[in-house]
Amino acid sequence: MTTDLVIDVRNVTKRFGGLLAVNDCSLSVRRGSITGLIGPNGAGKSTLFNMVAGNIVPDSGQVIFDGADVTGMKPYQLFRIGMLRTFQIAHEFSQMTALENLMMVPGDQPGEHLLDTWFRPGLVKSRETAVRKKALDVVDFLKLGHVRNELAGNLSGGQKKLLELGRTMMVDAKVVLLDEVAAGVNKSLLNDLASNIERMNRELGYTFFVIEHDMDLIGRLCDPVIVMAQGEKIAEGPMAEIRANPQIVEAYFGS
Ligand code: ADP
Ligand code: MG
């Protein structure tokens, strides 16, 4: 099924006890876009993201992914159908090389299935070769080739972020969710990260849905930008338009 919207959130609501975290909120992410989500602390951004990614089930409303209703599906199920979220490199993986970290990401190549492995051992080898080749392509694309055999734990903060991004390239993502990926990354590395996100978008056609506090980064990368406040979407448009709207600036900084 093809649809112009990769993610279509329809009237979702989530309460935590008496607190209305997300209130009848609708928004969407167009295929091929880098869509940003901003808003003051407590606006409901992470809760909304968690509902899209399957970490939280909405009290009401639907999450449509690539034309199908995925409300209530688990993160691993969403992962399998191409909704990817970046994860920090876990402690256990810091003792593996950058390349091995990429090769860890499950794909859907032959050899994945027990029967194939049992009856056709040759396939496993060819899968291994294919995965390795893909991982090498990914490190090249991200210009991490020179550190591919370094232990992930020894990489710089910025290189780790690139590796996190790289893991989303090991499977066929329809959309990549980035939740404050720039947090704790210095300006020059941030630039590097941003240009790689741009290249993934422009050259490889990746769609991104991004929560970010860094307004410069949002302004550079995202169009459109969606603004949330008090659990609701209050505006959507190019960053220049958002910045120029006094009501939004008021709602954004006035709380
Ligand atoms: P944002 O990411 O925009 O800062 P959140 O989605 O994290 O906002 O939070 C929205 C509101 O929901 C806040 O008032 C927050 O305190 C509350 N909240 C978020 N998660 C929980 C939770 N697990 N339990 C109770 N309240 C929560
Ligand atoms: Mg948050």
UniProtKB/TrEMBL annotation:
InterPro entries xref list: AAA+_ATPase, ABC_AA/LPS_Transport, ABC_transporter-like_ATP-bd, ABC_transporter-like_CS, BCA_ABC_TP_C, P-loop_NTPase
SUPFAM superfamilies in the cross-refs: P-loop containing nucleoside triphosphate hydrolases
UniProt protein name: Branched-chain amino acid ABC transporter ATPase
Transmembrane regions: none
ABC transporter domain location: 7-255
Keyword Protease: no
Family label: Belongs to the ABC transporter superfamily.
Keyword Metal-binding included in the entry's annotation: no
GO MF term list: ATP binding; ATP hydrolysis activity
Superkingdom classification of source: Bacteria
One cellular component term from this protein's GO annotations in UniProt: plasma membrane
Alphabetized CDD domains for the sequence: ABC_Mj1267_LivG_branched
SMART domains, per the entry: AAA (SM00382)
Keywords: ATP-binding, Nucleotide-binding, Transport
